[in-house]
Records
---
Amino acid sequence: EAQIIQNWANQLTTVPTSTLAIVPYQNSRWEPLCGFYHRQSLSSLQTFIESGGRSFQVWLSQAAIPLPVGEREAVMLSNCNTLEEFEQLKGKIGNG
């Protein structure tokens, strides 16, 4: 939903300029495809990789500030791998 993304983008003005990333976080997992990344995060990520780091989730836990994820956001971030999961998601959207 565009409004959810816009609400997250509006929060960017409230975080310190030293913040490398602001990323949705739910169920002990980061949602990196919907994150906002400062240009400076690239050098931090490169250093992490050069030091043997391989997990983007681990890097995010060191570098990112979590964005709040409520019910609407969780539905938007849902992952569907089967037709059954897609049908379940459609039901949630229809009831939301």
---
Amino acid sequence: MSSLDPERLANELHDGVIQEISALLLQLETYQRILKKDPEAAQTELDRIKKQIRKTLRNLRGILTTLRNSQG
């Protein structure tokens, strides 16, 4: 995303960040279901969730940086 194009921004948010957050919600629901039954599997799932959160934050920061740069 090299410039502030509203349609491209909307697509980037919808296809990127919003989809990633939706996936995180599903992963958290999985984590919640397996927590008591299989703590080891739950820990693996939690590690996966944390990794995905970091990726989502990087993506969102990239979008925000592009927005800032296109405004100035």
---
Amino acid sequence: MAEAELQLAPFRFDVTPPLGHSICGGWIPSVASVSDPLECVGFVLLGAGKPIVICAVDWLALLNSAHLAWRQTLAEAAGTHADRVAVHCVHQHSAPLVCLDTQAIVAAAGGLEDVIQLDFFDDCLRRGREAVAAALAAPRPVTKLAHGQAKVDKVASNRRVYRDDNGIVLGQRASSAPDEFLRGLPEGLIDPWLKTVAFYDGDDKIAACHYYATHPQSYYGDGIVNSDTAGLARKRRQAEEPDCLHLYFTGCAGNVAAGKYNDG
């Protein structure tokens, strides 16, 4: 790779919902307090055609037109097209589930809790626009790429290992499993590897993307906002390496959670 062929502009901004805001689409109690703020962490990659934007958001989900609105907003700020913007949700449950289309239906019905407060959503877009613009003022050259992996022990487990002889699921482990019998069953099929792709400017690591496949919940349902195990681990690495932007992406984990190793 030729020196300075690529450049990387890291950004981050706060996406913590206000007190009283819906969590998990209203399935669990609304925000009563915040133990750990939520973030959007990302970067703009320059030098490979139109800019590419990649980010991970500490929200449960960004759906339909809300997902498109984020991509369009960040694309405009970066001077690129929305199809060159990837917005990923880490999928914590003590966090907003955002769907503008659902919110329109809820508002029209009347008497129901908002799924997303539109002023908060718009404020997050404003912060994102400003964060990307500020990042583009000081991009770093990318001279090297690195990748690696490490096996993760006793975090993820297959949710549906308890089956009869015909393969019918008799019970499942979720993010926690109070049932000792279910916790005692085998770990089951998972991807045990945490993988990392890192970007370097000379000898300086400037960004690291981490990927692991599990539902990222240890606990939720009490109205206390937090970034949970994945977010706390990311923030620990960020504190250890303050000059490197750390991003975490949840892998293919629809049937994978921490239930075997978490009694709740």
